[in-house]
Amino acid sequence: MMPSNNPTSVSATVGNRLRLSRGGGLVGLVKSLAMPLVLAAFATYLVIGIITMRVPPNAAFPGPQFFPGIIAAGLYVFAIVLGIGAVRAVGGTPDAAEPDERTVGVDWRSFAWVVGSFLAFAFLLGILGWIIAAALLFTGIARGFGQRNVLFALFVGVTISSLTYIAFDMGLGLSLPSGILGWAF
Amino acid sequence: MDVLVLLGEGFAGALTWQNLVWVLVGCVLGTAVGVMPGLGSSMAVALLLPVTFSLDPTAAFIMFSGVYFGGLFGDSITGILLNTPGQASAIASTFEGHKMARNGRAAQALATAAIGAFIGGIVASILLVFFAPLLADLSSSFGPAEFFALAVFAFAATSSVVTDSAVKGLASLFLGLGITVVGVDGVTGAPRFTMDSPNLFDGISLITVTVGILALGEVIYVACLERHVANKTMIRPTGRPWLSRKELKEATPAWLRGTAIGLPFGVIPAGGSEIPTFLAYGLEKRLDSRRRKPRFGTGAIRGLAAPEAAGNSTTGMAMGSLLALGLPVSATAAIMLAAFRQYGLQPGPLLFERAPDLVWALIASFFLAMVVLLILNLPFAMVWAKLLLIPRPYLYASIALFCGLGIYATSGATFDLVLLLGIGLLGFLLRANDFPLAPLIIGMVLGPLAETSLRDAAMSANGDLTTLFQGPIVLTIYAVLVVVLAVAVRNRVVARRAAARTPERESVDAS
Fold first, then answer.
1. Confidence (pTM)
2. What are phi and psi of B36, to 5 degrees?
3. What number is the ipTM of this complex?
4. Are residues A47 and A91 located together in one domain of the fold?
């Protein structure tokens, strides 16, 4: 009866039963191999770290490398199992979708808006200050969610970023950067 | 009756006017986040965690208890009015709750849910008062081998029993465990996997991971699907927001049965309140089919009352095992554990000796939070539902803004914001491939405990790893784990056979 592994996302989050399509052929194979590749890459990072680790000579067994070693081994095993499963799934017939489920593709333009806005926010925060940078982040993400009226979104964004600045920086004493607005005062 | 004296002192500590304000703020924020579709109490706690740094510990935890339970009161509102459960534990109550609302009994459905959540929570809190000190006494005899066994139990239960693909669950768990080993090793002082960057010497903070995985990952994910989403119409409740005597008589046994089912799951590290809510729903359904006039399928009040009570009694008891054992059984409890660590407190048997005033004030604040939440939810459920009218672009843009605020306020470094985005992308990838997220968070939280207890046990036995499987308590824990896994495998086989035999009936049940 459980809808999915993360019942609060996809189907439940927005009240629609959606399912991401993998696509067939080579593209589908690359997409379904993404997770196994991430697992294998992380395991490799751990292995390199274990080999190059500078361990103090007095460390007794099990030392700082023991537990990460188990994790890296486990990650490799799961990557291989999932990778084999992905290759087989592409060759075989796709699973039958449930009756009220729709398969849809990822909207990469929205993806780029959201990720790009956050990346820009991360690097511009120190220069522009919280109020401007957060307002731009807000506008960018609203745009990613299909908000066409950018000026109105910017207006809402400035309101929210100013209110949070007043509440958290001035009220609760968290330190948020004032940026270029700070030089004026 | 020592505990009653201590509880009384706790109330005395909690009942200052500042603390009452924090309970109220916590309850309002928790309910508000819980009402929003897709955001549960774990996200509310994760987003608010950095904000509380400037408060003193008692005030912060009192506020958290409001947030913790507020999320559970709020999530059923969306389920009932929109057929969109706010989090996994609200799915079971959505089935009958939404049908009640469609039959024009929305106001009564909201009242049933609020009272159910109240009963479950208050019974769990009362039991917790007497039970937690006993549990703390018991667990003071636990050594590293016992804690390692408990961690293994939590890992196995969350990654394979709760999810439907054990390999995906385990992969997610190991990613979480892998993140915890980054940083300077506490035992030998050797820097591990830091690429000699001072940003990573302290490791990757649990807050960054939970906010990235649960909040930012969700924002990216929903953005990618936004174009395909159709808006649903919300049912506007009218009429009396209270229950008639007949309805109370009908619902009371279900509330109590639900509470009883939920309680034991608060102590078992099996991933929180999803399982008990479904068990409670299933039990009511089976009992109902024996009656002369079965009500299920037409908006049965019992089908809503039982899972609501079960969900909150599990959550209440989960707080007990967190305080007494230091063992989080759900993602929300895991973030609460991080909150304790932030204040230099380690939940577990010693906490009751080291900071009794804080613990008892926290337990007392559960009772206050329950009462405040009942008052906030019974007459004002409709006001909360208005939050659903915020357009999604602004809602999710605000969530992203608060992610940035929380993480920057903790560290003040661009590096952590970029790390947050990277983890958010990982969360997106996990969601898109239908990997469960809860095991990653549990692995992240219990990873350090598992590693240090593993090494402590092995080192004190001169590197002999068999010491991890000795002792009566350890063997009992592993035996229970074997039984749980066997039952889970059997249930899965039975369910698969049943699904193969009657595919049509299954789809009717799930809708």
1. 0.83
2. -65, 135
3. 0.88
4. yes
